[in-house]
């Protein structure tokens, strides 16, 4: 894996601190095994987390406030000690309470970028980036060469002499990233790094970080509560809830095949329709009668756990998978997987319209329409629900 600097590799950092054998994942740069954290022995923040950060990947911890994302990150870098479990860095054990192993953060050499950037205002851009290298007493010529390279890679060369205070939010963020890379382990931890930026700059920085990460081949463990940020940036997402990882996988897998209602609702929008199971296919598939009276064939995921025919259930479908067509003239005909409705309101989002549609039952659902749609507010429509895109769940 190409690391940013000609620096001490992570596997040498903790030399002499623990056993030599590797944890389960052979090529992982960072591994957490059964990590648990309770503050003051009472509040449990992290409850048995296992994860492996592979070389060159962006792995995001995603979840609502208080689910344990930051605690997990702080344990990884050594700012907190795990209460139980093991942390491995580059094949070396760096935290294992049961084995009395703990390597402090300054000896883990991992870069961390915080929400607040933590740029030192009394130092120039060059000095900020050089700091982690000076702290390790590297020779001046080597420091200069490495910092020049990092400033070049992050597009900051022309700002080298500028004080940290005289930079825009995006530039400060880049200084924080360059300084994180100077830590040299090839692993960068980022905790909500864009939350202080306005939405335009936030989008720009997401793209910039991903480009930089791809160029350098570093591994990033990223924390956010923003699902669109996680979907856009990550190679893999770990959705956390109450201190545990609920599902981990590539963004498209989590989006298309959520393993739980929590992951389904946390990632993206859903149209939800309530109904009752009318039949179960021999191998797979359900027939569901909606509250609208229509029949729907469901060939997506079945999360109803074999609930018997007659049980209430919930169907979900991503709004972009619903086809919205003008209602045909003449008497209403009932067809499977087609629901009648009327557009109540259309919101123009730039690239698309978000339309609220009232169904016969009175339920209001949200759908997406192309920006060139000819459909209008007040118009009668039919919603076509492809069976492969419909997932069945127990009632909420
Ligand atoms: N130093 C601390 N002392 C006591 N409890 C703490 C401490 N730090 C975090 N907690 C608690 O641990 C739980 C997890 O907190 P953590 O900051 O890891 O969550 P988070 O998902 O990162 O939240 P946020 O997105 O709000 O930062 C919360 O209930 C929090 O109140």
From TrEMBL:
Q: Which keywords does this chain's UniProt record carry?
A: ATP-binding, Nucleotide-binding, Transport
Full protein name: ABC transporter ATP-binding protein
The source organism is Ancylobacter mangrovi
Q: Where in the cell is it found?
A: Cell inner membrane
Per the database record, which ranges form the ABC transporter domain? Answer: 30-267
Highest taxon of the lineage: Bacteria
Quote any Pfam family the record assigns. Answer: TOBE_2
Note whether Methyltransferase occurs among the keywords: no
The region called Disordered is annotated at 1-20
């Amino acid at each position: 894996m190409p690391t940013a600097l000609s620096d001490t590799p992570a596997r040498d950092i903790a030399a002499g601190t623990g056993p030599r054998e590797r944890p389960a994942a052979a090529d992982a740069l960072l591994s957490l095994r059964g990590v648990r954290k309770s503050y003051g022995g009472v509040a449990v923040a992290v409850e048995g987390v296992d994860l492996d950060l592979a070389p060159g990947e962006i792995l995001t911890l995603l979840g609502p406030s208080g689910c344990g994302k930051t605690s997990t990150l702080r344990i990884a870098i050594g700012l907190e000690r795990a209460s139980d479990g093991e942390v491995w860095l580059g094949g070396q054990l760096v935290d294992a309470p049961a084995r009395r192993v703990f390597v402090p953060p300054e000896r883990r050499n991992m870069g961390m970028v915080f929400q607040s950037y933590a740029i030192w205002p009394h130092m120039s851009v060059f000095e900020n980036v050089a700091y982690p290298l000076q702290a390790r007493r590297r020779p001046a010529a080597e420091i200069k060469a490495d910092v020049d390279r990092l400033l070049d890679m992050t597009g900051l060369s022309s700002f080298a002499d500028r004080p940290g205070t005289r930079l825009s939010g995006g530039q400060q963020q880049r200084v924080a990233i360059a300084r994180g890379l100077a830590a040299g382990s090839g692993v960068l931890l980022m905790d909500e790094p864009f939350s202080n930026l306005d939405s335009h700059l936030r989008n720009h920085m997401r793209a910039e970080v991903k480009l930089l990460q791809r160029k350098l081949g570093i591994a990033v463990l990223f924390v956010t509560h923003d699902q669109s940020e996680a979907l856009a940036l990550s190679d893999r997402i770990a959705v956390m809830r109450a201190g545990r990882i609920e599902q981990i996988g590539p963004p498209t897998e989590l989006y298309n095949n959520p393993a739980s209602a929590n992951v389904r609702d946390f990632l993206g929008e859903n149209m939800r329709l309530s109904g009752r199971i009318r039949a179960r296919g021999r191998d797979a598939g359900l027939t569901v009668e909606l509250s609208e009276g229509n029949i729907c064939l469901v060939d997506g995921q079945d999360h109803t756990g074999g609930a018997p025919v007659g049980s209430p259930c919930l169907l979900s479908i991503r709004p972009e998978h619903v086809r919205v067509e003008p209602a045909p003239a003449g008497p209403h005909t009932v067809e499977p997987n087609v629901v009648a409705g009327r557009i109540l309101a259309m919101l123009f989002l730039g690239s698309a319209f978000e339309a609220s549609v009232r169904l016969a039952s009175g339920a209001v659902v949200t759908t997406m329409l192309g920006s060139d749609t000819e459909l209008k507010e007040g118009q009668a429509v039919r919603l076509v629900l492809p069976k492969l895109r419909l997932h069945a769940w127990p009632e909420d």
